[in-house]
Amino acid sequence: MSVTPSGEHDPTGSVNTGGTDLRPSAVIPGGAAAAGGQDMFGATFGGDTSGYGGLVRRADARLSSPRPYGGWFDETVDSLEAAYPGFSDAVLRVVVDRGELTLHLRTERIAEVCRVLRDDPNLRFELLSSVSGVDYPAQPERLHAVYHLTSMTYRRRIRLEVSVTEQAPQVPSVTGVYPTADFHEREAWDMFGIEFTGHPALTRILMPDDWAGHPQRKDYPLGGVPVEYKGAQIPPPDERRAYA
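^ that's the sequence the OP posted. Answer follows.
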């Protein structure tokens, strides 16, 4: 290991502090990142408590993965195509990444596809594990709803994904297919503002009914919202007194 004067950086980004070698990390970065007050991903240190820090996700190519997908993925996609006449119109792309299968769908077809995946004997995805919201501010259809389905019969998991714009955030509810979607869709509405049409009671589940905005959108000022508690107003984290 190269030896440098105390406090200086060597080309690898290590810092010599009198015998202690501090490697760069997401918490204490080394090299130029530390000098600039940024972590290794480019987020700036400071009063931002959102965990977002201005990070920008690299846009994907929006292409389907090439065949063969591998494992049981080909069998599942072929079974869905055989069982669902609208497959070619409903499925925009099939993506295999990190050992997981994702079907990107036309938003208006989500409930139809879920019903086929649940009922077809070659698929049998009986359980909706969760409905998650995602926000990609740089994309025209920035709000995504992601569905995680589990086949207890075949011990398989699959992901479905749809996207909508901020101006027209409507997605058909799948509560008629999977009753477990009830609270999941309410949370995605509460946190991201995705409106699940046909939901039996689409109300907030975490925030107060009169709350303005959706706290998990990446443009939401999470570090700058005062909180009222028992008659007192607690300032936002970035405005509180620091004791250390």
